[in-house]
Amino acid sequence: MKKALRALALILAVCACGASFCACKDKKYAAYDSTGEKYDYYLPDYVKVCKYTGIELPDLTFEPTEEDISKRVKQNVALFCLREEDPDRPCQAGDVVDIITTCTFTEDGSTYSLLNFKKDSVTGFGQSFVLGTNYFYFPALDEAVEGMSAGESKTVTLTLPDPYYKDYLASGKELKMEIYLNYIDSIDYAQVDENFYAEHIGYGSADYREVVRNKLKAEYAELVSGYKAQLAWNYICENSKLLKLPEKEYQETYDTMLDSARTNAQNKDMSLEDYVKSLGYDSLDDYYAYLEDKSENICYEDMILYYIVRRENINYTDEYYDEQILAMVEEYQISDLSAAEDFLDYYYGIENVREEVRMKYAQEWIADNAKVVEDVHTVYDNNLNGGK
User: Fold this and answer.
1) CA atoms in the 13 A half-sphere facing the CB of 331
2) What tens digit of pLDDT does each residue of 175-218 get?
3) Least buried of 242, 288, 314, 332, by fewest C-beta within 10 Å?
């Protein structure tokens, strides 16, 4: 009987220890998990996340110069000026020009889509802009185009600004650009006087310069904010570690991208193999390998974000949500929040949109909790955070 009691006590002790372990696990699990969301796992088993607060970021600020303001003013007033099509001369600053480009990085030959302007199949045009006004935040491109004639082609090697606020990963990189100048429109700025401003702009010239100054400040403040968030995020991804892949989300991501490619191929009346070869892949196996790497990277970065969001209990404010939703539909001229949500729900699913807003907010939270350093050059010399 004593042996039976001892055996029963041992069983109860083991059960109690198991219950205690589960309770501890569940309590710890709650800090990383949110039931019902994607990656609904104990994420420390899947990804090892580096220290994400106190990351060192550069103290980047922007104050528009008078020249910056004049260039933006010229961009805007050109819309209302008389123009002469195809003047018998090379293009010059102030002209409206249209370019078609092929842009690749010299280091690996990959296409740089942000500055790759294709010929429209309907209009035959590429990208038009007011030359010499820093439209692309890339003054060297304006300089390369100036002096070209309509119908002329040239190949140039240019280096992106450092920092390049439109795409921090490309900052300071060298590009090979094949440029074709489609057309030139000469703009008559002689008509721009105070009456012109009153009629077309709605401000006097001096007041309008202040309007533009403030818009430039706000525009660059947003660019700098996004730039810092990208710097911080890149650091975290480079210094964290994938432990294992989540099979469910990995397969869903892979299948979604593959289904999208099949749909695009079908719409173009092409086989999948021919379609992926048109994208630059040597074979279907080459494309499948790309999908595998891409799916793994998406899951890896997603899990890092969910880890941080859950551990820090991060969620956006109503005001932030409203701003982001309206910004998403700005190009469609939708200004009503309810109409914006209906539009986004129809095309993307509102829950997916809300999750995207949440993740963007989390990346900005990381940047906001960074440590600002004065020596900007430490970033561009790849010595951010002591080169860890």
Assistant:
1) 2
2) 999 999 999 999 999 999 999 999 999 999 999 999 999 999 99
3) 332
How many Å apart are CA 281 and CA 110, to the nearest integer? 12
| CATH top class, domain 43-58+217-387 | mainly alpha
pLDDT per residue as tens digits for the range 238-261: 999 999 999 999 999 999 999 999
Identify the CA nearest to 135 among candidates 120, 146, 125, 124.
146
0.85 cut: is pTM over it?
A: no
What is the SS3 assignment for the chain?
Answer: CHHHHHHHHHHHHHHHHHHHHHHHHHHHHHCCCCCCCCCCCCHHHCEECCCCCCCEEECCCCCCCHHHHHHHHHHHHHHHCCEEECCCCCCCCCCEEEEEEEEEECCCCCECHHHCCCCCCCCCCCEEEECCCCCCCCHHHHHHHCCCCCCCEEEEEEECCCCCCCCHHHCCCEEEEEEEEEEEEEECHHHCCHHHHHHHHCCCHHHHHHHHHHHHHHHHHHHHHHHHHHHHHHHHHHHCEECCCCHHHHHHHHHHHHHHHHHHHHHCCCCHHHHHHHCCCCCHHHHHHHHHHHHHHHHHHHHHHHHHHHHHCCCCCHHHHHHHHHHHCHHHCCCCHHHHHHHHHHHCCHHHHHHHHHHHHHHHHHHHCCEEECCCHHHHCCCHHHHC
Domains of the chain, residue spans:
43-58+217-387, 83-187
Q: What is the CATH number of domain 83-187?
A: 3.10.50.40
Preceding amide of 163 cis, omega within 30:
yes
